[in-house]
Write a structure and sequence with these properties.
Layout lengths: L6 H24 L40 E7 L8 H7 L2 H4 L2 E7 L4 H7 L5 E4 L1 H9 L4 E10 L3 E4 L13 E4 L5 H12 L8 E4 L3 H9 L5 E4 L3 H7 L3 E5 L6 E10 H6 L1 H20 L1 H12 L4 H14 L8 H10 L17 H8 L2 H4 L3
Parallel strand pairs: 1-2, 1-3, 6-7, 6-8
Antiparallel strand pairs: 3-10, 4-10, 5-8, 5-9
Length: 369
């Protein structure tokens, strides 16, 4: 893992600051003399055509330092789904500004989002952990710096005749494509229910709405879906067969990911983005209605009840301290078909130094609940 930049970079920044202060002092000395000074006798009228000063001259003294420039960063989010909305709430609530970040958010689907980060077209991905781990295994320097969610949460909805998870045996299940998070987590879940992939027929369908449509048309018996589609499925009369969140499967999501190179070259940007993310999740807890309004703007949905369910679910599973968990990374490695995953250490994919510093310094505890 690349080391943080050394003193030379900080010395250059101090040199720039000294030059800026010198220029400000020079400008102050070159201006018109202040009232009451030897060059401006008391009561003297302004010269013809001159504009009187709008306010009294400031007291003499050292020039004030300009506020530090904000760190410009580009963050890709992989969808406009409600579960991705936290990153845009950070923008709308002004949290990026508060922590010195000039954030540009871009909607870029995965896997293009990871490729864009490796090409230097964006600086961060807000994404699930699995694509970042897969990219690293393939030789990239992608790394997880924070993950707000530590475990999997999805739902199985289907026909009312299916009493429970064990009754999925022999059924047709609409699920996301092989290689996706939902596909992998469902395979882990059915093992806990005493089933194997051979006991089921999987219909690979990407979009949640199309999965439910497959159940409605009798092309499938059940579907693996996320929030807020579970709310909509219940409205249509489909039965909740299982809540995967009850299984507690470690599976990091809502992750901020970047490259080891970016961490080394721009540590202030990494810290500011993580600070803004953590502060946003705390702010959301105390500002339910405003947060749902912001999720409405982000998703473009007018289904208030569904977005309320999404809000409740996100905060239910949000980690108080958003570490990229080692056990979650290990679970993902165990689910991958890449032979390199079996021998890989989970620590290789994680750089939690900023989160750890914010945790031990008291920053996170200082945020209002």
């Amino acid at each position: 893992m690349a080391s943080l930049p050394g003193p030379a970079r900080g010395q250059r920044r101090l040199g720039h600051l000294g030059l800026a202060l010198g220029l400000l002092a020079a400008v102050a000395c070159s201006g018109a003399p202040a009232a009451g000074s030897p060059g401006a006798p008391s009561g003297a009228a302004p010269a013809s055509g001159a504009t009187p000063p709008a306010s009294p001259a400031a007291p003499s003294g050292p020039a004030a330092a300009a506020p530090p420039a904000r760190e410009k960063v580009r963050i890709a989010h992989v969808s406009n789904g409600a579960t991705m909305g936290v990153i845009d709430v950070a923008r709308q609530a002004g949290m990026f500004d508060r922590y010195g970040i000039d954030a540009e958010l871009q909607l870029i689907p995965n896997p293009i989002s990871v490729a864009a980060m490796l090409a230097g077209e964006v600086d961060f991905n807000f994404i699930a952990a699995q694509p970042i781990i897969t990219s690293n295994l393939e030789g990239a320097d992608t790394v997880l710096v924070s993950c707000g969610i530590g475990q999997a949460f999805w739902w199985i909805y289907g026909k009312p005749s299916i009493a429970g998870p064990a009754d999925l045996k022999g059924k047709r299940i609409a699920n996301s494509r092989r290689g996706s998070d939902l596909y992998a987590v469902f395979n882990l879940a059915i093992q806990r229910w005493g089933l194997s992939p051979d006991d089921l027929t999987i219909l690979q369908i990407d979009k949640d709405a199309e999965k439910i449509a497959a159940v409605a048309s009798d092309a499938a018996d059940a579907a693996v879906i996320s929030v807020p589609t579970n709310v909509q499925a219940a409205r249509q009369g489909w039965k909740q067969i299982a809540d995967v969140g009850d299984l507690g499967i470690p599976w990091p999501a809502s992750c901020l990911a970047t490259t080891e190179r970016f961490v080394a070259e721009r540590p202030a940007a990494v810290k500011g983005v993580i600070e803004a993310y953590i502060a946003t999740t705390r702010w959301m807890k105390a500002h339910r209605e405003e947060s749902i309004d912001m999720l409405t703007s982000f998703t473009g949905s007018d289904d208030r009840a569904a977005l309320e369910a999404a809000y409740d679910t996100l905060l239910k599973y949000q980690q108080a301290v958003p570490y990229p968990t080692i056990d979650g990374v290990q679970t993902i490695l165990g689910s991958l078909e890449n032979p390199a995953a079996a021998a890989a250490s989970p620590e290789r994919f994680v750089d939690d130094r900023v989160v750890r510093d914010l945790d031990t310094s008291g920053f996170i505890r200082s945020l209002p609940d």
